[in-house]
Amino acid sequence: MSTTSTYTHTKVFKLESGKKLRKIELAYQTYGKLNAKKDNVIWACHALTANADVLDWWKGLFGNNDLFNPEEHFIICANVLSSHYGSTNPLSVNPTTGLPYYLAFPEVTIRDMVAAHRLLAAHLGIEEIKVLIGGSLGGQQAVEWAIEDSSAIQNLILVATNAVHSPWGIAFNESQRLAISSDRSFYANKPDGGLKGLKTARSIALLSYRSYDAYTATQLESVNEKTDSFRASSYQNYQGEKLCKRFNAYSYWYLSKAMDSHNVGRNRSSITDALASIKANTLVIGIENDVLFPISEQQFLSKHIPEAEFFSVKSAYGHDGFLIETDVLTNVIGNFLKESTNKKIIKLHKTA
């Protein structure tokens, strides 16, 4: 059973920057039913251009016959602020002007996204999350949430993510924004503004999502005579056009800014102290040849989150492996959760 809903927070929502949104809307989907004890909640945080339909974009890990299934769990995924899949974003109407925000939309941070999701959790009467999981930008949300509300998260799964976005990652995002801003239509304040730039931005992003080996495996030419019209060229064009059909340049711009903002040490004593405050049973998973979120970043997380477990995944797909290697993830996460349950039972016996 799947339900698509929108939560409207009618009070002023204050952003980390100090700017305010008069109200916010969050599109979210739920699957399954909340049990009587309210202890079967699985909350998935989505990545950059995904939506709230986690059973669609994380197939193999989430689904009727998968590790996280609606028959056993109450699964929730909420669309983040700035994304145009139903939540408040740059194409939403600015109540002050009666027109879409476009570039007048205030910048939203990862911490703002988490604050909004915590409002949704309170609205749904959820006080405890059995598993909070996210990869990439979703993982950035998950680690922030586990710091902000450490007592509410029982198990934390962080996949291909980090504690602070790197200069390398920011440089990739800035290059994409330069591509978008080079498209003059981006400043025309129209829903389809900046699409040519967005196509180029997506092409740049793909180089950080995949790997040399992935392109060799899927885009290598079968003949030696070609001098143009290469498969890799067609692939870059196709993927850029594909995103333009389902997304907009303004949301992409703001979401990339949000990713850049990620730093768990901001306005806290330090990055390591922030990670040390996490109380959840934590599993950190890295992809060995991830160019965008190198495995050293996941090793840093596991080193500084108390008693965190670490697992590395071999994949030809680079960063995108976190969405593709679901058989491995199912095995690793499933074993981790079984061990977590056993530890909990042992603790209960010791205190009884």
TrEMBL record:
Stretches assigned to the AB hydrolase-1 domain: 45-324
Catalysed reaction, written as an equation: L-homoserine + acetyl-CoA = O-acetyl-L-homoserine + CoA
Binding residues for substrate: R202, D320
EC class name: transferase
Keyword Acyltransferase attributed: yes
A GO term, aspect molecular function: homoserine O-acetyltransferase activity
Pathway membership, UniProt: Amino-acid biosynthesis; L-methionine biosynthesis via de novo pathway; O-acetyl-L-homoserine from L-homoserine: step 1/1
Active site positions: S136 (nucleophile), D290, H319
Keyword match Nuclease: no
Residues in the signal sequence: none
UniProt keywords, alphabetically: Acyltransferase, Amino-acid biosynthesis, Cytoplasm, Methionine biosynthesis, Transferase
E.C. designation(s): 2.3.1.31
Protein localization: Cytoplasm
Main subcellular location: cytoplasm
Similarity-based family: Belongs to the AB hydrolase superfamily. MetX family.
HAMAP family named in the record: MetX_acyltransf (MF_00296)
Quaternary structure and interacting proteins, as annotated: Homodimer.
Biological function: Transfers an acetyl group from acetyl-CoA to L-homoserine, forming acetyl-L-homoserine.
Protein name as catalogued: Homoserine O-acetyltransferase
Lineage: Bacteria, Pseudomonadati, Bacteroidota, Sphingobacteriia, Sphingobacteriales
